[in-house]
């Protein structure tokens, strides 16, 4: 009489697999929950505002504009912003290349994208917007000094564009706006189905790290 063949139970999933499963489930639930609530056009607008194809020409224009050329502080900030956008692409590109996590299956067609953008971890948008916000935070004194320099050269033009508020107050208001924008833009990546939650969190940490590196070592 043949003995029953008792198969050993399958080993429990590893911690990494459990984390990925939880991340995938949570991201899908958030996407499904908010998809009928938040207009897709609003999420797409946030996506555009965090796109590198917008920020590279914008940062280059700021660097070469009379605003930066008439203030050494603003010129240094503009140059660091441009360099940081370049290092951001390097960091994110390397991480995506080695990790190669696929984007959510419910992700709508993304159209023509760069090959690096076929991978999901970490989020390039999240990294970019948090880098911009963190660099501005670390450079807040230099930006305020730059506004004072411009105001000294031509007070009427500066007051016409940004008002007669104190320079420190202006940069603090703009800093709050940047942090809110960076959070909303990062969240929109999950709600659009472009990324998982962990992609966005990791991207934010990369952005913070990049901002520190640029301000510490690439500030001229």
Could you tell me the mean pLDDT?
84
How many distinct domains? 1
Structural class: mainly alpha
Number of helices: 10
- Name the beta content range: under 5%
Low-confidence stretches: 111-115
Give the tally of β-strands.
Answer: 0
**CA-based gyration radius:** 22 Å
SSE order:
HHHHHHHHHH
In helices, the fraction of residues equals over 70%
**Span from first to last CA?**
84 Å
What is the global morphology? elongated
Largest β-sheet summary: none
Q: Which terms summarize this structure?
A:
about 220 residues, mainly alpha, about 70% helix, elongated
General description of the model:
With 220 residues, this protein is mainly alpha-helical. It has one domain. 72% of the residues lie in helices and 0% in strands. The protein contains 10 helices and no strands. It has helices at residues 15-34, 40-49, 52-64, 66-69, 72-99, 124-138, 140-153, 155-162, 167-191, 197-217. The termini are far apart. Residues 111-115 have low confidence and may be disordered.
Please give a quick description of this structure.
With 220 residues, the protein is mostly helical. It has helices spanning 15-34, 40-49, 52-64, 66-69, 72-99, 124-138, 140-153, 155-162, 167-191, 197-217. The N and C termini lie far apart (84 Å).
Question: What is the element layout, followed by pairings?
Answer:
Layout: H1 15-34, H2 40-49, H3 52-64, H4 66-69, H5 72-99, H6 124-138, H7 140-153, H8 155-162, H9 167-191, H10 197-217
């Amino acid at each position: 009489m043949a003995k029953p063949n008792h198969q050993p139970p399958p080993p429990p999933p590893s911690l990494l697999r459990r984390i990925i499963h939880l991340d995938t489930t949570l991201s899908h639930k958030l996407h499904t929950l908010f998809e009928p609530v938040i207009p897709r056009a609003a999420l797409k607008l946030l996506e555009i505002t965090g796109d590198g194809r917008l920020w590279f020409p914008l940062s280059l224009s700021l660097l070469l504009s009379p605003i930066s050329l008439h203030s050494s502080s603003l010129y240094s900030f503009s140059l660091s912003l441009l360099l940081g956008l370049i290092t951001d692409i390097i960091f994110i590109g390397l991480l995506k290349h080695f990790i190669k996590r696929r984007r959510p299956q419910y992700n709508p067609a993304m159209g023509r994208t760069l090959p690096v953008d076929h991978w999901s971890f970490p989020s390039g948008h999240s990294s970019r917007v948090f880098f911009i916000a963190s660099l501005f935070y670390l450079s807040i004194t230099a930006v305020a000094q730059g506004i004072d320099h411009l105001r000294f050269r031509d007070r009427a033009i500066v007051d016409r564009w940004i008002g007669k508020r104190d320079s420190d107050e202006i940069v603090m208001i703009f800093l709050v706006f940047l942090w809110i924008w960076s959070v909303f833009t990062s969240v929109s990546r999950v709600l659009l189905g472009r990324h998982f939650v962990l992609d966005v969190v990791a991207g934010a940490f990369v952005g913070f790290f990049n901002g520190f590196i640029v301000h510490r070592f690439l500030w001229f």
